[in-house]
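Closing statement on the uridine-5'-diphosphate-xylopyranose sub-project.
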Amino acid sequence: MIISIYGAGYVGLITAACLAKLEHQVTCVDIDTKRIAMLRKGQCPVYEAQLPELISEAVQANRLHFTDNFAEATKRADIHFIATGTPSLPEGNANISQIIAVAVTVAQQTERDCLLVIKSTVPVGTGDALQVRIDKELLKRRQKIRISVAANPEFLREGSAVHDFMNAERIIIGGKAQEIAPLQIVYHPLVAKNIPLLSMSRRSAELAKYAANVMLACRVSFINQISQLAGALGANIDEVRQGIALDTRIGPHFLRPGIGYGGSCFPKDISALVYTAKALQIDASLIEAIAKVNQLQKNWLIERLQHHFNNKLAGLKIGIWGLAFKPGTDDLRDASSLVAMKSLLAAKAKLIVFDPAALLAAQKLFINEPAIRWCETATEVLTASLDALLIATEWPEFRNFNLHFLSEKLNKAPLIDGRNCFTLEQVKQAGVAYYYSVGRPQVMSRREIICA
Ligand code: UDX
């Protein structure tokens, strides 16, 4: 198929590269000329495993090319994927102005029957509204062609998006059966690998995306709230989690306690769904509670520090390992690390920070901040005779770090692990003087374990 992808952002680039891999002819268009120029030079603007290789392979095979010229992308395509951003507006609703702009432009420029596919996460009913708008545009042009609108939400995780596309657990397409049939051809190679392809109404497809993300975020807030209870009651959240995970109705996945979820999706999708519910006068208290619990959990690091130092943080040298909202990405959007950094700067502490991928992005957020020392390695952070070390992102290099070496470097300084990178056994054997972790008893070396 001849496919155009509008939006060379995170979702657009993954979709473009993967569809090219599936042997389609893909044009990826973006209004950001600098971004397009970078991509044309073979540089990948997104930190994502396998993506640079996939892009260069597709470009070499002449199955993928980039342009900032809309007309070039619009005229030949059988299928137009919209993968532009839908950021939150101040009220929490999703900003779909870019989606509308692309749809109207396609309607104004295309000369052939085609399918317009909404890949971005959009409020339920957006597809219906776009269909009406497109039909109006075609009427204005006295065009006899048909542009059908389909929903095709993505379920890509940052850091494993290529894998998630090529090994999707399901593909959802929403719209009138005969109109969305071309998507069966688009995804045929994946369906041939027994990946389920679910056809449903457009509105169901749009709502399924929100429901999936809200359910995932709910599991995170659930285990975090239970970890608060475990920590206060001297229980161990790892054991509690084992105790519930064997129930097949619950399962073990997506129940890792930590300092809360971040990223560009969960927070925005929860706000958008709450907004939709409120507009319909439907109670959204459960969905709102997910966000509330998450916001509280983001304070866990600073609360442990205040507890350990009796609220006297001014002048302390605090190391932070990990800034990205999760490992495998350089994305800082809604990262829990930022909450700790801002609180510590406000408390006049000194920060010594490292992240394997997100350092540059963080430096842009805290330009010329004199109280922050930016380090090139995890070990460099330890050379600053720290008063405490925080872990905010569970990068593998932290989880595999030599704990004996770490324990020596820290000496009496507490290790405050917001992502439970280590087992209590490991920490005890390494002789870490003070170890705080989420929902588990505090470990004090060479002394009794006491409840947090
Ligand atoms: C998510 C959804 O997983 C994906 O399907 C959707 O398309 C986009 O949003 P992403 O935001 O990239 O993907 O990351 P994900 O791996 O889902 O983690 C989201 C956040 O939850 C991260 O901050 C992560 O640290 C946190 N998390 C996840 C936990 O705290 N505990 C867990 O057990 C899992």
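The CA atoms of residues 326 and 393 lie 6 Å apart. With this model delivered, the sub-project is considered complete and its resources will be redirected to Aim 3.
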